[in-house]
Amino acid sequence: MITDTEIKAKGVQVLARYLGDVEAERFVALIQREPFDYTKWRQDMDEELSLEEISRKAMAQRIKNTE
After folding, report:
1. Per-block average pLDDT, block size 10, for the chain (67 residues)?
2. Domain of 31, in residue numbers
């Protein structure tokens, strides 16, 4: 298991990789500024998708990440 500090560092790296430095910093500022329930946010993002669609998206992302 990795430490909380390592998780934070990896999280920022992933955000910066996909959003760029400026938008990653904006994202962090946004979630620190207001009450934020990541689990609820994540559930709401996919609430209209079927299980098959969620699985398809996950597999496509997995393939993309291994290329």
Report:
1. 92 93 90 79 76 83 79
2. 4-66
